[in-house]
Amino acid sequence: MTKLQFLSKLELLFEADLGSIREADHLSRFDRWDSLTMMGFIAMVDEELGVTVPANKLVAATSVNDLVSLVQDRLVG
Question: Spelled out in words, what is the top-level CATH class assigned to the domain 3-74?
Fold first, then answer.
C-alpha cells in the first residue's frame, strides 16, 4: 500500500471528503476521531498491512503524520 492509498483509507474511516486528509492535519480536526474510529484504525492496519498497533501509541497520536509513522515501514513509495 502506498502512503496515498493509506490516506485514502483514513478518509473512508473518518468519513472525510476524498483528497481532504493531509499528513500535517491534527486529529482533533476530525469529529470522527474517537474510540470507535480508533478501533476501526486498529482493525484496518491489521487487516490491510499486518500491523499490530499498540493502544498506547495510538492514543498518543495527535496528527495524521503520527498515524502514518505507526505503519511507515509497511508503506511503499
Answer: mainly alpha
